[in-house]
Amino acid sequence: MIVFGGGLAVTLVRFPLSGVLSAFKIGGKVAFVHKKVDPRELIDNIAEMGDIVRRSGPLGLESLELDDENLQKGAQFIADGYDSSFIRESMELARDQLLTRLQEGQRVFKSLGDAAPAFGMIGTLVGLVQLLANMDDPGAIGPAMAVALLTTLYGAVLANLVCLPIADKLTSKFDTEEVNQTLIIDGIMSVRDGKSPALIREMLTAYLPEGQANEELAEAA
After folding, report:
1. What does residue 196 show for φ and ψ, rounded to 5 degrees?
2. Which pLDDT tens digit goes with each residue over 139-192?
3. How many distinct structural domains can be found in the chain?
4. Which among 62, 78, 104, 130 would be 20 to 30 A from 12, CA to CA?
5. Where are the alpha helices (DSSP H) in the chain?
């Protein structure tokens, strides 16, 4: 109660309830069912979209199924014939909302990770007070000592095994998604403008690390 309840109470003071619930949802998803998106796969998909548009026109994208939600949305926008400014604004808004959720989730788990050891120490102090208050009763010393030691253990485990690793993973996810979603937006706009698949691929390799970019260009050649 002291460690888990206290840590949660502090987090609810710092963040709104909706933000905490959203953070738990996205944190659990990233921690346990997260699938890493390869930017090279995104580039291949976007280049394929460019090829389809050049061969069949924008309507050829209607039957295309893609794993990334924002990329699928962009393909649908092109197929529906929306203008470039609307597509860019809509996709940038979706990207920013995703990044905001990831950032908020990272802050919530970081807050829990910071609070858990502190409340573990508070529980230890409570156990020591009980211990000192019952020195004349040998039977009460054991339970009080257990409280003193276990709360520190619970706080350390909650912080270092659960909250802080998830916070770090959300930070990593934020960095990855910021690059990937910006890549998707630029790719969709290139497809919308009718650029060739080869030019699209060459432009988007700028988002890859140097080694991967060279491999991608070599494969395309």
Report:
1. -70, 150
2. 777 777 777 788 888 888 888 988 999 999 999 889 988 999 999 999 999 999
3. 1
4. 130
5. 2-14, 17-32, 39-56, 69-80, 84-133, 138-157, 164-192, 197-204, 210-220
